[in-house]
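Renewal narrative, Specific Aim 1. Our central claim is that a sequence can be written position by position from structural information alone. The example that follows is taken directly from our test logs and has not been curated for this report. It begins with the structure tokens describing the chain, in the order in which they were read.
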């Protein structure tokens, strides 16, 4: 079963609204943008986790919050 995605186009001059199905090129572009967004989001989340891990390791070594912040 294939899902049909629609595009809402609004004419800025007239305010006329048109709803039409996405063509294959538009759908492919949206899927590529989604994949890129998810990859960047995953990267950002990994950096947050790595930073938290690094800060915890520094604290385990006995560094104070001020010393860690100075790094």
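The sequence written for that structure reads:
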């Amino acid at each position: 079963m294939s899902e049909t995605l629609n595009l809402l186009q609004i004419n800025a001059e007239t305010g006329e609204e048109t709803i039409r199905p996405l063509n294959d090129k538009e759908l492919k572009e949206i899927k590529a943008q989604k994949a890129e967004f998810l990859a960047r989001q995953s990267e950002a989340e990994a950096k947050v986790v790595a930073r938290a891990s690094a800060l915890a390791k520094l604290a385990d070594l006995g560094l104070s919050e001020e010393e860690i912040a100075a790094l």
